[in-house]
Amino acid sequence: MSRCVIIGGATIARYEDIKKYLRQGDFHIFCDNGLRHVEGLGVEPDLIIGDFDSHEAPELPVETIFLPRAKDDTDSVYAVKEALKRGFEDFLLLGVIGERIDHSLGNLSILLKLDSLGKRGLIVDDYSEMEIVSHSPALVGPEFPFFSLLNISGTARGITVENAKFPLEDSEIDCEYQYGVSNEPLPGMSARISVKEGRLLLVKVRRD
User: HSE on the CB side for 104, CA within 13 Å?
Assistant: First the structure.
Protein backbone atom coordinates (compact mmCIF):
# COMPACT_ATOMS: atom_id res chain seq x y z
CA MET A 1 0.00 0.00 0.00
CA SER A 2 1.11 3.58 -0.62
CA ARG A 3 2.31 5.86 2.15
CA CYS A 4 -0.07 8.33 3.77
CA VAL A 5 1.15 11.94 3.93
CA ILE A 6 -0.78 14.16 6.33
CA ILE A 7 -0.34 17.92 5.91
CA GLY A 8 -1.25 20.25 8.77
CA GLY A 9 -1.43 24.02 8.91
CA ALA A 10 1.83 24.85 10.71
CA THR A 11 4.33 27.04 8.88
CA ILE A 12 6.49 25.48 6.17
CA ALA A 13 9.18 27.90 5.04
CA ARG A 14 11.49 25.58 3.10
CA TYR A 15 9.21 23.90 0.57
CA GLU A 16 12.06 22.71 -1.65
CA ASP A 17 13.60 20.80 1.27
CA ILE A 18 10.29 19.31 2.35
CA LYS A 19 9.31 18.28 -1.19
CA LYS A 20 12.33 15.95 -1.28
CA TYR A 21 10.49 13.69 1.16
CA LEU A 22 7.48 13.24 -1.11
CA ARG A 23 7.17 10.15 -3.30
CA GLN A 24 5.15 9.26 -6.33
CA GLY A 25 2.10 7.30 -5.25
CA ASP A 26 1.74 8.98 -1.83
CA PHE A 27 -1.82 9.47 -0.56
CA HIS A 28 -2.18 13.12 0.57
CA ILE A 29 -4.55 14.16 3.35
CA PHE A 30 -4.77 17.92 3.83
CA CYS A 31 -6.07 19.05 7.22
CA ASP A 32 -7.96 22.36 7.35
CA ASN A 33 -5.37 25.17 7.10
CA GLY A 34 -2.92 22.68 5.64
CA LEU A 35 -4.62 23.51 2.35
CA ARG A 36 -2.46 26.64 2.22
CA HIS A 37 0.47 24.34 1.41
CA VAL A 38 -1.03 22.80 -1.74
CA GLU A 39 0.80 25.13 -4.11
CA GLY A 40 4.06 25.17 -2.17
CA LEU A 41 4.27 21.38 -1.98
CA GLY A 42 3.08 20.93 -5.55
CA VAL A 43 0.69 18.06 -4.78
CA GLU A 44 -3.07 17.72 -4.93
CA PRO A 45 -5.27 16.47 -2.08
CA ASP A 46 -6.62 12.93 -2.18
CA LEU A 47 -8.68 13.64 0.95
CA ILE A 48 -9.47 16.85 2.85
CA ILE A 49 -10.37 16.79 6.56
CA GLY A 50 -11.20 19.65 8.87
CA ASP A 51 -13.59 21.76 10.89
CA PHE A 52 -12.43 24.75 8.80
CA ASP A 53 -11.98 27.13 11.69
CA SER A 54 -8.68 28.35 10.20
CA HIS A 55 -9.34 27.95 6.47
CA GLU A 56 -12.46 28.48 4.44
CA ALA A 57 -14.29 25.31 3.51
CA PRO A 58 -12.98 24.11 0.14
CA GLU A 59 -15.08 23.70 -2.94
CA LEU A 60 -12.95 21.13 -4.71
CA PRO A 61 -13.91 17.88 -6.46
CA VAL A 62 -12.10 15.94 -3.75
CA GLU A 63 -13.44 13.70 -0.98
CA THR A 64 -13.91 15.97 2.05
CA ILE A 65 -14.78 15.09 5.64
CA PHE A 66 -16.30 17.99 7.54
CA LEU A 67 -15.72 17.82 11.30
CA PRO A 68 -17.52 19.65 14.13
CA ARG A 69 -15.49 22.35 15.85
CA ALA A 70 -16.31 20.96 19.32
CA LYS A 71 -14.55 17.57 19.38
CA ASP A 72 -11.88 15.58 21.21
CA ASP A 73 -9.63 14.91 18.21
CA THR A 74 -7.64 17.59 16.45
CA ASP A 75 -7.93 17.57 12.68
CA SER A 76 -4.52 15.88 12.43
CA VAL A 77 -5.41 13.15 14.92
CA TYR A 78 -8.70 12.51 13.12
CA ALA A 79 -6.79 12.27 9.84
CA VAL A 80 -4.47 9.63 11.28
CA LYS A 81 -7.42 7.61 12.60
CA GLU A 82 -9.14 7.82 9.22
CA ALA A 83 -5.98 6.71 7.43
CA LEU A 84 -5.59 3.77 9.82
CA LYS A 85 -9.15 2.70 9.01
CA ARG A 86 -8.14 2.71 5.34
CA GLY A 87 -5.25 0.38 6.02
CA PHE A 88 -2.20 2.64 5.84
CA GLU A 89 0.96 1.40 7.58
CA ASP A 90 3.46 4.17 6.79
CA PHE A 91 2.91 7.83 7.68
CA LEU A 92 4.70 11.10 6.90
CA LEU A 93 3.43 14.17 8.74
CA LEU A 94 4.21 17.67 7.45
CA GLY A 95 3.13 21.06 8.75
CA VAL A 96 2.41 19.69 12.23
CA ILE A 97 5.26 21.36 14.18
CA GLY A 98 5.11 25.14 14.45
CA GLU A 99 4.31 28.20 16.50
CA ARG A 100 1.58 26.58 18.61
CA ILE A 101 3.49 24.52 21.19
CA ASP A 102 0.27 22.82 22.34
CA HIS A 103 -0.52 21.57 18.85
CA SER A 104 3.13 20.61 18.29
CA LEU A 105 3.29 18.50 21.45
CA GLY A 106 -0.07 16.95 20.69
CA ASN A 107 1.14 16.00 17.23
CA LEU A 108 4.30 14.42 18.63
CA SER A 109 2.05 12.04 20.56
CA ILE A 110 0.78 10.78 17.19
CA LEU A 111 4.19 9.16 16.72
CA LEU A 112 3.72 7.28 20.01
CA LYS A 113 0.29 6.06 18.93
CA LEU A 114 1.55 4.86 15.58
CA ASP A 115 4.50 3.10 17.23
CA SER A 116 2.18 1.33 19.68
CA LEU A 117 0.21 0.02 16.68
CA GLY A 118 3.33 -1.18 14.91
CA LYS A 119 3.09 1.50 12.22
CA ARG A 120 5.87 3.73 10.95
CA GLY A 121 5.56 7.45 11.58
CA LEU A 122 7.89 10.29 10.60
CA ILE A 123 7.42 14.01 11.26
CA VAL A 124 9.43 16.41 9.11
CA ASP A 125 9.72 20.17 9.60
CA ASP A 126 12.00 22.84 8.16
CA TYR A 127 14.89 21.76 10.36
CA SER A 128 14.58 18.14 11.38
CA GLU A 129 13.11 14.65 11.19
CA MET A 130 11.36 13.10 14.20
CA GLU A 131 10.59 9.44 14.83
CA ILE A 132 10.18 6.98 17.69
CA VAL A 133 12.92 4.50 18.60
CA SER A 134 11.57 1.44 20.40
CA HIS A 135 11.74 -2.16 19.20
CA SER A 136 14.08 -1.69 16.24
CA PRO A 137 17.43 0.14 16.19
CA ALA A 138 17.65 3.48 14.39
CA LEU A 139 20.48 5.04 12.42
CA VAL A 140 21.52 8.69 12.13
CA GLY A 141 23.58 9.22 9.01
CA PRO A 142 26.45 11.66 8.59
CA GLU A 143 24.13 13.99 6.64
CA PHE A 144 22.64 14.99 10.01
CA PRO A 145 25.11 17.16 11.97
CA PHE A 146 23.18 16.73 15.24
CA PHE A 147 20.62 14.46 16.83
CA SER A 148 18.80 14.32 20.15
CA LEU A 149 17.13 11.56 22.13
CA LEU A 150 14.18 12.78 24.20
CA ASN A 151 11.96 10.82 26.52
CA ILE A 152 8.31 11.75 26.07
CA SER A 153 6.82 8.55 27.48
CA GLY A 154 7.76 7.10 30.86
CA THR A 155 11.31 5.76 31.28
CA ALA A 156 13.51 4.21 28.61
CA ARG A 157 16.14 1.68 29.67
CA GLY A 158 18.91 -0.25 28.03
CA ILE A 159 19.77 2.65 25.74
CA THR A 160 22.88 2.16 23.62
CA VAL A 161 24.29 4.82 21.31
CA GLU A 162 27.24 3.87 19.10
CA ASN A 163 29.38 5.79 16.61
CA ALA A 164 28.51 9.11 18.25
CA LYS A 165 30.44 11.90 19.96
CA PHE A 166 28.66 11.03 23.22
CA PRO A 167 28.16 7.25 23.31
CA LEU A 168 25.91 5.43 25.75
CA GLU A 169 25.81 1.81 26.89
CA ASP A 170 22.87 0.24 28.70
CA SER A 171 21.75 3.66 29.96
CA GLU A 172 18.44 5.13 31.13
CA ILE A 173 16.62 8.36 30.28
CA ASP A 174 13.46 9.49 32.03
CA CYS A 175 11.16 12.45 31.43
CA GLU A 176 12.71 14.52 34.24
CA TYR A 177 16.31 14.57 33.03
CA GLN A 178 16.74 14.98 29.29
CA TYR A 179 20.50 14.60 28.95
CA GLY A 180 20.30 13.16 25.43
CA VAL A 181 20.09 16.56 23.71
CA SER A 182 22.48 17.55 20.89
CA ASN A 183 24.68 14.57 20.13
CA GLU A 184 26.65 14.14 16.89
CA PRO A 185 27.45 11.18 14.63
CA LEU A 186 31.17 10.56 14.37
CA PRO A 187 32.64 11.98 11.15
CA GLY A 188 31.71 9.87 8.13
CA MET A 189 29.80 7.35 10.25
CA SER A 190 26.17 6.58 11.10
CA ALA A 191 25.24 6.67 14.77
CA ARG A 192 23.29 3.59 15.89
CA ILE A 193 20.65 3.82 18.61
CA SER A 194 18.87 0.94 20.34
CA VAL A 195 16.46 0.76 23.26
CA LYS A 196 15.68 -2.42 25.21
CA GLU A 197 12.72 -1.07 27.19
CA GLY A 198 10.49 1.95 26.60
CA ARG A 199 10.56 4.49 23.80
CA LEU A 200 12.50 7.60 22.84
CA LEU A 201 11.84 10.44 20.44
CA LEU A 202 14.74 10.69 17.99
CA VAL A 203 15.20 14.14 16.48
CA LYS A 204 17.61 14.24 13.54
CA VAL A 205 18.66 17.82 12.89
CA ARG A 206 19.40 18.73 9.27
CA ARG A 207 20.38 22.35 9.96
CA ASP A 208 20.57 24.89 12.80
Answer: 10
Q: Which of 182, 25, 179, 202 is nearest to 108 (CA)?
A: 202
Q: What is the pLDDT of residues 180-196, one digit of tens each?
A: 999 999 999 999 999 99
Average pLDDT, the chain: 93
